[in-house]
Amino acid sequence: MSAALEAVDLKRSYQLEGVSVEALRGVSLRIEPGEFVAIIGPSGSGKSTLMHLLGCLDRPTSGALRVNGVEMSGLSDTSLAELRNRTIGFVFQSFHLLGRTSALDNVALPLVYRGTGKAERRDRARRALEAVGLGHRLDHRPSQMSGGEQQRVAIARALVGEPSVLLADEPTGNLDTRNGDEVMAILDRLNADSGVAIVLVTHEPEVAAHARRQIHVRDGLIELDTALAERARDEGGAR
Amino acid sequence: MRAREAFFMALEALRVNRLRSVLTMLGVIIGVLAVVILVAIGSGAKNAIEREISGLGSNIILVVPGQLSVGAAPTQSRLSLSDAAFVRRVVGDPSKVTVSVQSGETVRVGRQEAFVTIVGTDENLPNIFQRPLDRGRYLTETDVDTRRRVTVLGAEVADQLFGDVDPVGRQITVSGARFRVVGVYTTVGATFGVARDKEVHVPVTTAQRLIGADRINGIAVGASGPDEIEPLQQKVVAALGERYPGERFSAVTQTQLLGTIGSVLGMLTGVLAAIAGISLLVGGVGVSNIMLVSVRERTREIGLRKALGARQRDVLTQFLIEAVLLTTIGGLLGILLGVGGALAIQAATPVPAAITWWSIALAFGVSVAVGVFFGVAPARRAGRLDPVVALRAE
Ligand SMILES: Nc1ncnc2c1ncn2[C@@H]1O[C@H](COP(=O)(O)OP(=O)(O)OP(=O)(O)O)[C@@H](O)[C@H]1O
Ligand SMILES: [Mg+2]
What we know:
The complex is a heterodimer of chains A (239) and B (394).
Chain A: E1 5-16, E2 19-31, E3 36-40, H1 47-54, E4 62-67, E5 70-71, H2 77-87, E6 88-91, H3 103-112, H4 118-131, H5 147-159, E7 165-169, H6 177-194, E8 197-202, H7 205-208, E9 213-218, E10 221-225, H8 226-238
Parallel strand pairs in A: 3-8, 3-9, 6-7, 7-8
Antiparallel strand pairs in A: 1-2, 1-4, 4-5, 9-10
Helix pairs in contact in A: 3-4, 3-5, 4-5, 5-6
Chain B: H1 3-16, H2 18-55, E1 60-65, E2 79-80, H3 81-91, E3 97-109, E4 112-121, H4 125-128, E5 133-136, H5 141-145, E6 150-153, H6 155-162, E7 171-174, E8 177-185, E9 190-191, E10 194-195, E11 199-203, H7 204-211, E12 215-216, E13 218-222, H8 229-243, E14 249-253, H9 254-297, H10 299-307, H11 312-348, H12 357-384, H13 387-392
Parallel strand pairs in B: 4-11, 6-8
Antiparallel strand pairs in B: 1-13, 1-14, 2-12, 3-4, 3-7, 3-13, 5-8, 6-11, 7-8, 9-10
Helix pairs in contact in B: 1-11, 2-9, 2-11, 2-12, 3-8, 9-11, 9-12, 11-12
The complex binds adenosine-5'-triphosphate (ATP) and magnesium ion (MG).
The site of magnesium ion (MG) has 3 residues of chain A, from helix 1.
Domain ABC transporter (chain A): 5-239
GO molecular function (chain A): ATP binding; ATP hydrolysis activity; transmembrane transporter activity
Pfam family, one (chain A): ABC_tran
């Protein structure tokens, strides 16, 4: 079975006024279907950059990325959009909901780009909202909901299309502890129930602790990957 | 994404920014409104003039001295009654030739006064022009031959001088001479600004004595059918040219007048519509401007949509439809207001207005085209936005 995501020596540099800034300097990782991974690192270490690459929102300067075994560098922008639509769900720190649109329509948006009919869209969006405990907020607009509720709407939107990977960039960053815990509880449950792989960016150790595996990033490089460390230890113990 | 979804998405975006949408549309609304109203007035004027010319009678040839062209000042008349007799011989049927000599005079009945056009003519007038009588009789050959002081009044003159009283048999005074009213014409309206209902017809011989001249202003010939008009016209002009070598005579037919006036007015209408069209273009620039602002404002929304799987084409379509909806709704409102305005102008003023389907179709087509043309650049910009940059935008 192929990995949900497999990155090999990913590099990403930006040109800033003629100077090349290396945000990622060669990252390799493999995320299996259904895994729950936290990416931790200081500000500016390249976490978001990595997230955008894993989500096929951006193209690496060099290196390879396979999504469910498909190499993305060979795909057109249009194909990448379709890939994102079907296999990846995004959750952002600042929610990114459409302001004057109901929760239901916000959640249904990915299905619009898939060409799903209206009745089915509404049905699936309603079920996704019920799954995050917002069955009673279908017609509320973002401005009529708390931050925690808004982030749960965003999670419902990320999951409505039944992706294989959910990428969450500091999903609790804008929330207080109670709302943050609630969001994390939902992510735990979704990962356990639906088997969606979750890659979560955070710099809070308590949040990272929800994941079985932690990847520490510093200066555009992976400093520590607990999965590799465990395997190394196991192999070391066997010897 | 289906076209339907893109349409409703765009409509929703316009609804959310309602005031801005309406203000943006205003340019297009005003442009279309101006096109529809100006074309309606132009066409109305053309129709009215054509109706007037056709209302004169059918198959009429007007013979005047000198070179005749639209807009040229009339030349001093060299025609006389003997020329009319000559033309009668040329034409062959004397009853299909009539004459006219005109002069502005004040007429009086008791204390009532009216400034009118005295028209000296003869008994053949009704054979050529459409000039039905309301009461009484036309001028007769005897009236002309014996220089009688009798008159047939235009409807408005009769009304002004006599009100409800029947004028037939009563007297009017023109420059001190008394005339007996023998008939009253029905209302016929104006032709080329000539108020024919303000005419007072008298025998041409009487008129010449009154004015103190033996000239006539023109000769009118009635052809027996549409095919006869042109040969007859040429025959008359040639014969007069032979009679007076070195001088020019002109003969114009209704068809020629209609053609000339039609093309002049058509051109005028076209120019007006083009000027109004410029404001449509300006409206289009406004749409382009607002769409660019909108793309900038909604950068994060665009980034999000792309993250969720919107393709470049989906985003482009959404914004292009927004632009086209702006101009199309603006165009439809402009058409409604333009038609309403044209009808109001027609109802409230003497300006005739005719709403033509082609101007409405054109205005609609142009507003859609303006939306496409001016919407493409902002929509492409939206479609090409890099999703990462767009998502990071604040
Ligand atoms: N568009 C860009 N142009 C130039 N440099 C960029 C761009 N995007 C990111 N960078 C740089 O790349 C590096 C990594 O940025 P990134 O946003 O991935 O960090 P991060 O780990 O997500 O930080 P934070 O925890 O603050 O969100 C930073 O030094 C940043 O300045
Ligand atoms: Mg970040």
